[in-house]
Amino acid sequence: MRIVRITLQAPIRFYRKVISPLTPPSCRFLPTCSEYALEAIEVHGALKGSYLAVRRISKCHPFHRGGYDPVPLPKSPN
């Protein structure tokens, strides 16, 4: 499944290396949405990580305060 993670992370890495430096910083969250997406996919896998990333990006609008919003820790299997 690592190939799926790499495939999902590739466009995010491209955005961070090529597109993001051309625009002024505007993310209202810490970590940034792209950092969050990369970490979410790495920590939670392709499906849940993508869901978390989309949910986070959906909060990116002027009516949300933003602030510190880390990737949730994975639930330990009990």
Whole-number mean pLDDT: 91
Structural Rg: 13 Å
Strand content: 5-15%
Give the overall shape, derived from the CA principal axes: flat
**Low-confidence stretches at least 5 residues in length (pLDDT < 50)?**
none
Considering DSSP H and I runs of 4 or more, what fraction of the residues is helical?
Answer: 55-70%
Find the structural class using helix and strand composition: mainly alpha
* Distance between the ends: 24 Å
Sheet of most strands: 2 strands, parallel
The total of helices stands at: 3
| Order of neighbouring strands in the sheet with most strands | 1-2
What is the H/E string? HEHHE
Number of distinct beta strands? 2
Which labels suit this protein?
78 residues; mainly alpha; 3 helices
Describe this entry's structure for a reader.
The chain has 78 residues and is mainly α. It has a domain at 24-68. Helices cover 55% and strands 5% of the residues. The protein contains three helices and two strands, in the order αβααβ. It has a two-stranded parallel ribbon. The longest helix is centred in the N-terminal third of the chain and has 18 residues, at 2-19.
Give the topology.
Elements (H helix, E strand, L loop, with lengths): L1 H18 L9 E2 L2 H12 L1 H13 L8 E2 L10
Parallel strand pairs: 1-2
Helix pairs in contact: 1-2, 2-3
TL;DR?
This protein is mainly alpha-helical.
